[in-house]
Amino acid sequence: MALLSVRDLRVEFATSGGVVTAVDGASFDVGAGETVALLGESGSGKSVTAQAVMGIVPKPAGRIPSGSISYDSKDLLAPGVAKGLRGREIAMVFQDPLSSLNPVFRVGAQIGEMFRRHRGASRREARAAALDLMKRVGIPAASKRLDDYPHQFSGGMRQRVMIAMALALSPRLLIADEPTTALDVTVQAQIMDLLTRLQAEEGMSLVLITHDLGVVAGVADRVILMYAGRVVETGPLREVYEHSGHPYTSGLMASIPALEGPRDRLVPIQGSPPDLLDLPSGCSFRPRCQYADEQCAEVEPVLRQLPDRASTHQAACHHPEGVLTDVH
Amino acid sequence: MTARRRTRAGSARIRFGFAVIAVYVVAAAIGPWLFRYNPVDTRTADRLKPPFTRLSDGSFAIFGTDQVGQDLFAQMLQGARISIAVGLATLVLAGTIGVTIGLAAGYFGGWLDGVLMRLADIQLAFPSILLAIFIAALLGPSVVNVVIVLAVANWVTFARVARGQALATRRREFVDASRTLGAGTWRLITRCVLPACVAPVLVVATVEIGHVILAEASLSFLGLGTPASTPSWGVTIANGRNYLADAWWISTIPGIALAFLVISLGVLGDALRDRYDPRLRSL
Hints:
The structure holds 2 protein chains of 2 kinds.
Chain A: E1 4-15, E2 18-30, E3 35-39, H1 46-54, E4 62-71, E5 74-75, H2 81-85, E6 90-93, H3 107-119, H4 123-136, H5 142-145, H6 155-167, E7 173-177, H7 185-202, E8 205-210, H8 213-217, E9 222-227, E10 230-236, H9 237-242, H10 247-254, H11 294-298, E11 304-305, E12 314-315, H12 320-327
Parallel strand pairs in A: 3-8, 3-9, 6-7, 7-8
Antiparallel strand pairs in A: 1-2, 1-4, 4-5, 9-10, 10-12, 11-12
Helix pairs in contact in A: 3-4, 3-6, 4-6, 6-7
Chain B: H1 2-7, H2 11-34, E1 53-54, E2 60-61, H3 72-108, H4 110-125, H5 128-139, H6 143-170, H7 173-180, H8 185-221, H9 233-240, H10 249-276
Antiparallel strand pairs in B: 1-2
């Protein structure tokens, strides 16, 4: 049974231009101990999905009119349920580690507060526990840095502090929302290594939200691709990368520069992301898709198994055969 | 280099403000022990003596005496104590009420914000001295009532500042981050939003305390502030009004003392705002 199960999730935001459906019927599962990458470009609904799971969708602009999110058979959308699980069972790491740390408290106190609040630890115990955690996430001279403020840390170190706070109570599910986007490339690799190492040690599930296909390539077991609020393709990482069944996925693959071989011009995806206030009928990717026909304009495609591929590999496209044969 | 200079903005003004205020506070704290003041004491022989007069008991009246022969200097020291005490008590009360209401309005938003801020608008639309006169007439003159009156007239400024900070802070990422790590509403307000309010509220407090001290003097001058047995500066100034032609010092000297304190507080408040108000800090 899946640890986290999202079914037909819809998240809407009231804006001055009308109601935006940021997540439109997304469904996916995350198994225990699994690493899942939630991929998509800006505005695809990946971060909002995470916010819905954590119960931090901005109110009153945002609301969840339908769908369900269950964690370990508990309904996360029921009032009061998510609050008891946050921090202890489910934790989250954010994109910008400077703005996600409280600027007015020392990092040792911020990490230690997790133990004081949830475990009733004394000040001294919390401090010792915070020091252990800081060492575990690889902060050099941790005992000296315990009393520093967040602004005194570098970006990578701040993200380590944030990860330390998230892991303080050994959660079973960690959601990392673009954890490396704000960091230098070399630091990105270090943070990814840290996350995968900790994930292996703790045996927790990890949901990696990113727009960077490269970041998750060596890490994720499974990928979920989102486009305009919908899940367009899902499957084991290697399957999806090598046998993309959705034109959006294959377009993304084609737009990655190759490190070896002849340097051709990159192939971009034509057009621009859709206006969420004015989505095209049927398939939202249709205006940018070379395979689009009348069926695509009329019927919204649903996720289904791809021909001749594993049952876990699904794409929401009317013409997966064309996509599969054209690319490979 | 520029950043360093900017963080030092207004150092001289801040030092000047603090120095003047320190003199007043020390005078108010220990002055009345050194120069005894008895409100019911009358010495007709020493009535209306000008400054720098030796009195009948051999003491020296540096600021002269008033219409009943009281030493004006002792009276002003006593008055400083009342003015500063009333000012501080009012700030604490108005600040507590204002910050609580502002945080609630800003953090929770929605109808609560609407109701509380309309209440503040109504309060602002009403001339505060008129409101103070009304409440003072209703409650009667006493030091405690003056504090209540002035707090009612001044909480709105604090509420607005706190609300602004709460609005700006509550959608900051670290608030969401704290929430995802299991912090409840109370903790988010006290640990994330309230600390963000401290600096701007302190700046507002320095600016407001001058207004409050002045308002207390105005109320006392009008006879609606502290009773005559507790001679705040307003009372002394009011008493001297009838003798302006022959004994200018009774009203003038406390007036100058009051003006100097209020100006110093204003200078300090402005300097602190220049230094700490993020809106004035160029990015």
